[in-house]
Amino acid sequence: ANSFSPDAITCAGEVGIILAHRGDLIKKMRECQSRRSRSMEIVKRV
C-alpha cells in the first residue's frame, strides 16, 4: 500500500526495532497488516 497512514508508519517503526530478531519480523508484519485491515474496515463502516 502506498498510502502513508500513521498506523503504517508505526508498523514500520516496530519492524525496524525488531529487525535484529528476524524470527519475530514476519509475525510482527502480519500483526501490523491485520491491525491495518481492521482499522480500514472501521473507516469503511463509518
Automatic annotation (TrEMBL):
* Superkingdom per UniProt: Eukaryota
- Give the protein name, as stated in the record: 9615_t:CDS:1
Q: Species name for this entry?
A: Paraglomus occultum
